Amino acid sequence: MSAENTPDPAIPGPGEPGPEEPRSPAPGRRGKGRRRRPRAKRRKALLVAAWTAAGVVVLGGTGAGVLFFKLNGNLSSVDIDQVLGTDRPERADNGSQNILVLGSDTRAGGNKELGGGTDDGTARSDTAMVVHVHKGHKKAGVVSIPRDTLIDRPECTDADGDEHPAADDVMFNSAYSTGGGSCAVKTVESISGLRMDHYLEVDFSGFQKLVDDLGGVDITTTEDIKDPDSHLDLPAGTHTLDGEQALGLVRTRHGVGDGSDLGRIQLQQAFVKALADQVKDIGLLGNPKKLYDIADTATKTVTTDSDLGSVNSLMSFVSGLKGIDASGMNMVTMPVRYDPADTNRVLVAQTKADQVWTALKNDKPIPGAATEGTASGGAKGVVNSTP
């Protein structure tokens, strides 16, 4: 095992401080001083619900007919390419694609009731995945980026043209709260060296309704999961989760394992696989009303890059991904290690992380050795998709 990695480098559960608090100094280390704050009760969005939301739009495309014209008005988009300009990694020429999928914890609108807290006009990307679609579009490598990873955020410009200076040693999720989707994309490109071809974002109120519209999602828990903060109480066994339960599952961090954010990522990844398997088996062609309800929710739930900002574009994009099921997804967490100055934060385990990003850049499978001993989070195997 690399010297820079320690086994099970999970974020402890007791704290969940804000996005840009300075770190407290470690002995012999000049620090900026970090106050430890009580954990804020936040509801988490399932980042990859955006991916699935896009997918259900295309399941019965011919059945919706002219109603797709109305659905176009539901979509929101951000012109990432125009904002970021040309100073970016080169696009891959090997037939692969990279998509950044984010979950937003905004308190606006219906999210305030679900998420609690104050609607202060800001939002953070508490969940993030880089989805690499391999050439041939039969397999995908998915890399979760922990929200509490300390990174150097590059200078970036938001969608309104406002410029934000670079910042060192800030939490990864601060990129989104600082400059929105375009700043998050630039930060991920800076970390990974990969060009993001597309961007998808989802908020958690839309995710909850989407799961309900789909009729729930089947999962099997191998242990009891109980977390009063997320209102989740699941005994070990097989369950069909409704939207509220699904939201509780993907945001819980105290109901399983060591209570870390990294443990929550493991739950999210397991749920995504269950959701992907279930979506492909839903029969919508014979039920135009249900098809439209799902498409209506899906298009209201996601924000995309401008290239995917119409239903036709989204359908064309997703139709190329229908060959990828749960068995074709290799889901990992970006290799990290504890920050010795603050155990509520993690640092990129650079050598192993480089192995992950290099493999994806070359359209190769992520090597198992790159993630061994990193970011287990103590929740692996707690949730499985139902056979």
TrEMBL record:
Residues 124-280 form the Cell envelope-related transcriptional attenuator domain. Residues 1-41, 102-123, 363-387 are annotated as: Disordered. Residues 29-41 have a biased composition (Basic residues). Keywords: Membrane, Transmembrane, Transmembrane helix. The keyword Protein biosynthesis does not apply. The keyword GTP-binding does not apply. It comes from the Bacteria. InterPro entries: LytR/CpsA/Psr_CW_biosynth (IPR050922), LytR_CpsA_psr (IPR004474). The chain crosses the membrane at residues 45-69. Belongs to the LytR/CpsA/Psr (LCP) family. This is LCP family protein. It comes from Streptomyces marokkonensis.
